[in-house]
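Co-fold these.
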Amino acid sequence: MLMQMARHSADPRFSSAPGRADKPVSGLKEIFRLMGARMKFERHNEIYGENEPAEYVYQVVSGAVRISKLLSDGRRQISAFGLPADVFGFDCGNEHRFSAEATVDAVVLVMKRSTIEAFAERDIHLAQELWKLATYELGRTQEHMLLLGRTNARERMVAFLRGMARRNHSANVVDLPMSRQDIADYLGLTIETVSRTLSALARAAAIGLPSSRRIVLRSHEALLEATT
Amino acid sequence: MLMQMARHSADPRFSSAPGRADKPVSGLKEIFRLMGARMKFERHNEIYGENEPAEYVYQVVSGAVRISKLLSDGRRQISAFGLPADVFGFDCGNEHRFSAEATVDAVVLVMKRSTIEAFAERDIHLAQELWKLATYELGRTQEHMLLLGRTNARERMVAFLRGMARRNHSANVVDLPMSRQDIADYLGLTIETVSRTLSALARAAAIGLPSSRRIVLRSHEALLEATT
DNA sequence: CGTCATTTTGAAGACTGTCAACGCGCGTGG
DNA sequence: CCACGCGCGTTGACAGTCTTCAAAATGACG
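Predicted complex below.
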């Protein structure tokens, strides 16, 4: 959780000393850059598990991660994908309520959660940044609830592709760093429905499918009317 | 909105001064108690709307509110119900991304958002409390995503009833402060499915339905196996 | 007691899930 | 170099759950 933070411009000297706190810089990312330990996770490997002590927080450097929760019978819901620059691993208690795994080979920066919280104790702006981050994530998650509760397969797929295109900030080509199963678990669908929906969008010339992991958003009109 | 506000005089000594923070009191709720303006909303009345400036924050005193979002074609998703003591209205930007309405006649305390944020600027513990609050809400919302994405109607209904029973902290009797339509929009179902599911649970002796707004949780075993 | 909103129930249909088979790409090993 | 196996993705047929449309029942309130 807690990903997709607002992209602030980074001040090299992060203002975590109580004395000088006039600039609204992103202290969190600065702290990660300066103090984060680099770690590599191969795809499908677990970064942390449900109910494990929430000892560390993370920032994606490359690759992608999924934040998910499992039901006892194997049903899974992915609440968010972490892409490069996203921060995740903040939970409210002392235990993770979700698990995190790499969906493809990924490099992340790791920090002790207590370090961040110690900084936040002394730096009001960092504390506020953490709050804004959580609030932003909350809003994003609530939007996703609307998707899961009230839209059909095509609308979910289109929203997902749009979101990925925006986050990739590559105009129309999306390289998916996750499997169909991951997409299905994110959208509350089955892998078959995901596949069929993509095929249908391709037949409608709304998208192109050069390969299974690459999607080209073709007709914005077709996508728009598909959303309706 | 925000008329007829009876302003309370601010008590000079509420414990948000950094000096005395040994008690695990809720600074936020203290601030609401001391400085909140009491307002009454009749059922179905809007407290704030989507895209309105997020100028105020609220705490429920009595009654209930729904936090919801509308799609252009009328589909609605309720992301949360606010029950007495719940705080709502914090959004990440300057505009509300959701709307809030009273589901039954409700009394709320209102405060300027800027007031809270000004306090948080100076009180690190309040800032942390706001962060914890947002993070807690985030976790709750993510759990709800699992419900919306991966469970059937009966499981959603049972989870909802359990949650309401817990929040009412009345052992087994739940008085619902919302309509079937509100429940449906919260659970991502139709009003008919909600009604049918409740009837089925009653037939299975898992619940009793003395009236449409009152539900008795009877057989914990029946509810449990219903969850499976 | 009548009216209106809300809730419940019924029947039919749509969308997605389930089960199954097939195709494709890729790495390994013969 | 090519065949094989394996993971992953696609497609098809059918079933099931939930929605839709419709109407009856219930309850609140003047």
